User: What shape does this take?
Amino acid sequence: MKPAFLSLALLFACPPAVVRAAPDAAEVKKAAVLQHAKIIYANYFDCTAGARRLQAAVKAFLAAPDAAGFQAAREAWTEARRPYVQSEAYRFYAGPIDDPDGPEPQLNAWPLDESFIDAPPGSVDPGVVGNDRAWPKITPDLLFRLNQADGEKNVACGWHAVEFLLWGPDVSRTGPGGRLFTDYTTAPHAKRRGEYLQACADLMLQQLAELTLEWKPDELGNYRAVFEEGIDFSVERIVTSLIFLSENELAGERLQVAYDTKDQENEHSCFSDTTWQDNVMDATGMLNVWRGIYTKTDGTKLEGPGLRDICRASAPDLEPLITALLEANLAKAKAIPQPFDQAITGADDSPGRSAIMALIVSLEETGSELRKLAQALKIEVPDVPPEDIEG
Assistant: This one.
């Protein structure tokens, strides 16, 4: 047996284990903000690429209209929506998408009055498509100026205007709108309808490209430069965005209104019957922000610190619950039966309405827990989305 003093000598002769200090909360915030900006740029880059493919598909269809080209344009719209709806997790704090001069009303306003764009035959007011006297030339600039100028539902452009022009009114209980490609060949006002569709697609691409530039790295004076400098203000933006998307927009405007009215006109993407996808992508976008990840449309995955890491550093007890709620939101969104416009009908205990209410409750709980995180971070959440938060 070795003497006790020799064992102690050997013990103290060994190099001590390296003890790494927990990262400073300020360092975690900065790293998460920088990662968040990187994710936003990648997401908006995908949005712009999707809009460019949609524009090309519309142009190809209008050059030689047929059923195959019409379907290709619809598929391009559906594909382009996936990254865009994920990007809604960067709204509600007066960023470049929805500051007072931002393009959000031109990109995603809804619900819309279909007859304002293209009224059915025999209508007293023929809509923009049918009124070549008032609007002899349909251009992106015209649609920009007309959008919501005379009323909130007078939506002239954006995702849902293109959706309406590609699918038409949804009067089916089992599927989306049934517009035929012949609306662009032999139907009344076919040429002007095509001009309207192309102008819409062109305007969307233009606005998304400009939005992407605001988040481009290493650009002096753009929004990203401001965002990366004001770390505490930017954390405030990130938290505020998730609270308002969860509570007000998704649980309230998108789900509760449709649930209460049982009216398919109140579902988000009512013409294409892709509201289920919208709900899933919104829930995915919220998880992206929380985890600090984003999977690009080419499959490349960006990973880094997210809001979850800020929570772990500042309010660790909240992290497991918020993580579980955000993951549950995605699972519950996927569990809603398709199509959404049929899920909102029936008795309250029907599978569809039960699934929608389960998601509403989960989203409201998510907002409540995120408000606790805001309190821990000394963030004062406004009653309504702010018009401006200075960086």
